[in-house]
Specification:
The structure is a homodimer. By secondary structure, chain A is of the alpha+beta class. Chain A is built from 8 helices and 8 strands; from the N terminus they run ααββββαβαααβααββ. Chain A is 43% helix and 25% strand. Chains A, B: One of its GO terms (cellular component) is cytosol.
DNA sequence: CTGGCGTCGGTGATAAAGTCACAGAGCAAG
DNA sequence: CTTGCTCTGTGACTTTATCACCGACGCCAG
């Protein structure tokens, strides 16, 4: 039952007591876990699947902030959980995901009673801050063609990716036209083949030029 | 002695015990609190003054991530403190600052024994995440002239700011030339007057055009 | 099977921002 | 006054963002 490493570190009888109060849930692909402005009613521990967290600016543009996968903790929820403020971002399930929801009272009690739980939370927290700082640097200073090539290479060194240019633009926080043009350039160089809603990676993407 | 709200919430005798192990320090303007890669040996609570946190990308460009002032907590340190990884950013004192350094062992003990301390830490964490998410949006989607005007307006609705174009470029995460040109444009419109290392705000900056 | 419709992708024109290179202005110390 | 350093201004060019529009593709109803 305790299919998350932070739960496995809990000593008995704390673990059993915790498991009684934790709600296990399954979310289908496409499901919205939370949206901007919404209140938070528990800390989600991701057990399986994949969830992307993105935000939309006043301009209406969106950008993907990070992803959560198996054994991740939705640290973004902690702030909302403890202060009662609403979320600033939204979370969308990409691959069917299972999660364990820890209610507020239990979260506080686990923090109190388990040094390992504290460590796990703080570790996750540090990683999330690092991710966001890296993203700031990336958005502020790196070239879009490099970022696009890296994104593609990370998904499929060789092979097919099912994604529209618009979705890819949101991943990178840019405009659809920019993605289209950069992809077209990659196609001219023979590094990808393009079709509607699909990108086939055919050549080396990184370390070229 | 307990000149930080999170210390004031501690009940006796926990507070007295904590104060024995906390080191109070004063840092002059210009002092570097920590640099990228450095290990962290305690959680700083800022009592007074102002500290800016900035990071430098592989490209060599820098950007200011956020500032800490009186009653802030250097949440960035928590991740490093708990995991032993090095800092990714650096912190520089802007106005002479006093800080209370909480060693790792004490931090964990306070988390365990004080619900108010836990709440304070998590609140601070949430605020920091929000700040960074806002920064991502700002850098990714907003126009530089707007951001520059807002930055100036926030510092001095009317009056003088002592800063070089290069420093201002780091505040906004852009290039010095871009700042110089935008400032020149503002000067042409009569909204600022420029001199070496100084900007005089003379007109309305926000809400125009 | 075909015609209509909504989504997706391509592209030109133009504006904003970033990069590179360099020159001149302001300031301080000798 | 000269020297040397930092700070600022600017031209030329590249990259990215924005706006406007059109054609291609896929799907579904008739």
């Amino acid at each position: 039952m305790a299919r998350h490493s932070i739960l496995q570190t809990l000593p008995e009888p704390l673990r059993s007591q915790a498991l009684e109060r934790i709600q296990f849930m399954t979310f289908p692909a496409g499901q919205v876990l939370f949206t901007a402005g919404e209140r938070c009613h528990g800390l989600p521990l991701v057990l399986s699947g994949s969830v992307k967290v993105q935000m939309t600016g006043v301009s209406g543009h969106s950008i993907v902030l990070y992803r959560m996968g198996a054994d991740d903790i939705c640290t973004l929820s902690i702030g909302c959980l403890m202060t009662g403020r609403g979320y600033r971002a939204e979370a969308v399930v990409e691959e069917e995901a299972e999660a364990a929801m820890i209610p507020r009272g239990l979260f506080d009690r686990l923090l109190e009673q388990s040094p390992e739980f504290r460590l796990g939370i703080m570790e996750s927290y540090g990683r999330r801050l690092d991710d966001l700082m890296l993203l700031v640097e990336e958005v502020a200073f790196r070239r879009m063609d490099e970022r696009l090539a890296e994104w593609l290479a990370a998904r499929a060194a060789q092979g097919t990716i099912a994604i529209t240019h618009q979705e890819l633009a949101i991943e990178l926080g840019t405009a659809r036209e920019v993605v289209s043009r950069l992809l077209k350039e990659l196609e001219r160089r023979g590094q990808v083949r393009l079709s509607r809603g699909r990108i086939d990676v055919t050549g080396e993407l990184s370390g070229l030029d």
